[in-house]
Design brief:
Radius of gyration: 19 Å
Order of helices and strands: HHHHEEEEEEEHEEEEEEE
Structural class: alpha/beta
Strand order of the largest sheet: 1-4-7-10-13
CATH superfamily: Hexapeptide repeat proteins
Oligomer: single chain
Distance between the termini: 49 Å
Helix content: 25-40%
CATH class: Mainly Beta
Length: 188
């Protein structure tokens, strides 16, 4: 637990001490997940789900009791983050808010053999940007970086950087209303 608190102090620039770190929503979610995971592995799925629901209610973060989480997970802000049942996260993973580590859908999942992973596996040191979605049993290699708003449905090699398409400015009166991305300049 001390290691978890130290990670908050280290990775969250808005936190200025242990007292503030203890109020990080993801800590409660991770600690309740560890308990629910142990209960889940012992075969008590309903009690594990009850602890999971409590964690989701108190933190806004959904970590299925079956998910395997490595050490020093940091979820910045966290609200809306979802980690599916067969997801596997290595050590030192950082997730920003509204990240989904999900499956491809019940139809495809029902076709998989029992026990086969349906959710992503993240290597150690992976960083996933805000509002990113990683679906299916994909592998994200160690120290890979996934940018904000990115949809990932294929494997990502170690140390890779994956970015979403940049936004475009829409202006009335241009062909199709779309222009190429432009840099914004502040003039004094």
């Amino acid at each position: 637990m001390r290691e978890d608190v130290a990670v908050v102090v280290e990775r969250d620039p808005s936190v200025h001490g242990v007292g503030e770190a203890l109020l990080a929503p993801h800590l409660l979610a991770v600690w309740l997940h560890r308990f629910s995971h142990a209960v889940h592995l012992a075969g008590y799925r309903v009690p594990a789900r009850l602890v999971f629901l409590l964690g989701r209610r108190l933190s806004g973060i959904e970590i299925h009791p079956g998910a395997r989480i490595g050490r020093r997970l940091f979820i910045d802000h966290g609200l809306g983050t979802v980690i599916g049942e067969t997801a596997v996260l290595g050590d030192d993973v950082t997730l920003y808010h509204q990240v989904t580590l999900g499956a491809l859908g019940w139809r495809r999942d029902r076709e998989r053999p029992p026990g086969q992973r349906r959710h992503p596996r993240l290597g150690s040191g992976v960083v996933i940007g805000a509002n990113s979605v990683i679906l299916g049993p994909v592998e994200i290699g160690d120290n890979a970086r996934i940018g904000a708003r990115t949809l990932v449905v294929d494997d990502v090699p170690a140390h890779a950087v994956v970015l979403a398409e940049p936004s475009r400015t829409v202006r009335p009166g241009t062909p199709n209303g779309i222009t190429e991305p432009t840099s914004l300049r502040v003039e004094s």
